Amino acid sequence: MKKVLIIEDEMALINNLTFALSDEFEVLSATTGAEGLRKARKEKPDLVLLDIMLPDKSGIEILQELKKDEATNDIKVVVMTNLGDKETISKILQAGGKDYLVKADWSIDDIAKKIKKILK
């Protein structure tokens, strides 16, 4: 079974995404960047769903760390953000993000469909 790691500090969003994805994937979660990096290295998920605004590190920093580490650089990363500006999106894609979602524009079901499509 493929694994999805959600790195997000909003528990309600983690719970809703876990519910939407757990029928097809093993879903792991972390609420800080440091915890997310540890879990990514240990669990080797197929995809990381990464919030850009975390309490300890920015999602961009985490994405950069994942991509420069040989153990995690092949993990697909989809970044979730409330920041839809071109500069943020450019940073996400330059750092190696597979895709990005502006949270306000996506329902939980749509996010789940996107992840399922990426991992097929």
Automatic annotation (TrEMBL):
4-aspartylphosphate carried by residues: D51
Classification via InterPro entries: Bact_response_regulator (IPR050595), CheY-like_superfamily (IPR011006), Sig_transdc_resp-reg_receiver (IPR001789)
Coiled-coil residue spans: none
CDD domains referenced in this protein's UniProt entry, alphabetically: REC_OmpR
Pfam families: Response_reg
Top-rank taxon: Bacteria
Domain Response regulatory: 3-118
One GO term of the biological process aspect: phosphorelay signal transduction system
Gene3D superfamilies referenced in this protein's UniProt entry, alphabetically: 3.40.50.2300
Keywords: Phosphoprotein
Name of this chain's protein: Response regulatory domain-containing protein
Organism: Candidatus Buchananbacteria bacterium RIFCSPHIGHO2_01_FULL_39_8
